[in-house]
Design goal:
Length: about 240
């Protein structure tokens, strides 16, 4: 009950820090470009064929989805971005709580809510590619870490599905901003680090152990890569 109350307070803080900017249709120039792309798409234009943009499709699709559901209003986009930003704070809370305590998780979420609205304020208040990318980016890491904790015991279907989902969310993050692909580098580095730590703790390491570790790492990375590739294939 106290945790839910605290999260409710964080949502209100997140809203209060952003609500004063809703009166502006466009907080920065990038929003105008994304909004124009979305309107053209809703009118039947094809992205990258009839609509000229140098960005991945994620942000334009986000704007188009909001416009389709709530009308062509930037106020709706900013409200949706506010909820989206709070969603990221929830992922921060869950990730920190998994490794530490719920109190630490709440503190981490509070810091995210505050600093995500109080640094380079004009751009931070915009529904830009960075704000939109961070939610699937952090959610991908959270699912990967949950799957890794499962794999410390006996790996099963659940952990495999979580790894594939982590790869898919990395693909979604990539659709918002290209640097989202860096999650895959983190995943690969983490898998290698785990094997290295296990190797260090082993007294007698034979060829069977090495091959088993190699197959496990390749299997995990294959699931992550498959999820990532699936998202790109769907939007290709």
């Amino acid at each position: 009950g106290q945790v839910m109350l605290a999260l409710g307070g964080l949502f209100l803080l997140n809203l209060l820090l952003r609500v004063s900017y809703i009166r502006y249709d466009f907080v920065n120039g990038d929003e105008g470009v994304r909004a124009l792309s979305a309107v053209q798409m809703l009118d039947g234009a094809r992205l990258y064929v009839d609509v000229v943009t140098d960005k991945p499709p994620g942000a334009s699709l986000f704007y188009a989805a909001v416009f389709a559901m709530f009308g062509r209003s930037m106020k709706a986009v900013h409200l949706a971005a506010t909820v989206w930003n709070f969603g990221t704070s929830l992922i921060v809370f869950l990730t920190a709580s998994m490794f530490y305590t719920k109190r630490v998780g709440l503190c981490a979420a509070l810091l995210f809510v505050y600093f995500s609205t109080n640094y380079f304020t004009q751009d931070m208040m915009a529904a830009n590619t960075e704000l939109l990318m961070v939610l699937p980016y952090t959610a991908s890491i959270y699912l990967f870490m949950v799957a890794s904790e499962m794999n410390r015991g006996r790996a099963g279907v659940s952990s495999a599905l979580l790894l594939a989902a982590a790869g898919m969310l990395t693909g979604v993050a990539f659709l918002f901003k290209q640097i989202g692909v860096l999650n895959l580098l983190f995943f690969a580095s983490y898998e290698v680090l785990i094997v290295w730590k296990m190797r260090r703790d082993q007294i007698d390491v034979g060829a069977a152990w090495v091959m088993g570790s190699f197959r496990r790492v390749v299997g995990h990375l294959a699931l992550l890569g498959s999820g990532f590739a699936l998202v790109l294939a769907i939007f290709a």
